[in-house]
Specification:
2 domains; single chain; 190 residues; 10 helices; mainly alpha; 0% strand
């Protein structure tokens, strides 16, 4: 006997195929709920089309819909990039990792260069990661050579430069680490 979806709430009916109004409604709901880039919205809509199929007239023009949302100001890649980069920097990620994340979100190289972190922001991000992960002077125990190398490797994976990682992991005190970060602000003129 075949299970019947009408009588069994656990069995889901396959979603209805999309048509133009449903696709626009889905796109608008996505943009309203999430900060996104044009490329991320386009990928989302294409995935939904693959999953659900198309029931409308002609072929769906996802690029035109995304372009219209960009024109209307619902999507702004530069604002998205600034917000995303700022959040990643505050969490302790370095410039290389920030650029990778923006590239994965479909942000163009030009915009990535425009939102690139200053020296002071890079140093503050490195300091934030060292504090958060208890690297160098922020840790409770003295670090041996193997632990030092692991801490430097973690900072490199987070996108920081080798010089910055060494500077923080080898800092003699938390005050010295904070002074190093503050020196970046003086160099930038911030």
């Amino acid at each position: 006997m075949q299970p019947d979806a009408r009588h069994n709430p656990r069995l889901k009916r396959p979603p209805r195929p999309l048509d133009r109004p449903r696709m626009e409604e889905m796109a608008l709901a996505y943009v309203a709920r999430f900060a996104t880039s044009a490329a991320k919205l386009e990928a989302y809509l294409k995935r939904k089309l693959r999953e659900r199929g198309w029931d409308g007239e002609g072929q769906p023009d996802v690029a035109a819909l995304v372009g219209r949302y960009v024109e209307l100001g619902y999507i702004d890649d530069e604002t998205y990039a600034r917000t995303k980069a700022g959040g990643l920097l505050r969490r302790g990620y370095g410039p290389r990792r920030v650029s990778q994340a923006l590239g994965a979100a479909g942000i163009s190289e030009d915009i990535r260069e425009n939102v690139q972190a200053s020296e002071a922001e890079e140093r503050r991000a490195a300091l934030a990661l060292a504090r958060k992960r208890r690297f160098g002077p922020f840790g409770t125990a003295t670090t041996d050579r193997a632990m030092r190398e692991k801490q430097i490797a973690a900072m490199l994976r987070a996108g920081h430069a080798l010089d910055s990682a060494r500077e923080l992991v080898d800092a003699p005190s938390t005050e010295a680490a904070e002074q190093w970060a503050a020196a970046g602000e003086e160099e930038d003129g911030s």
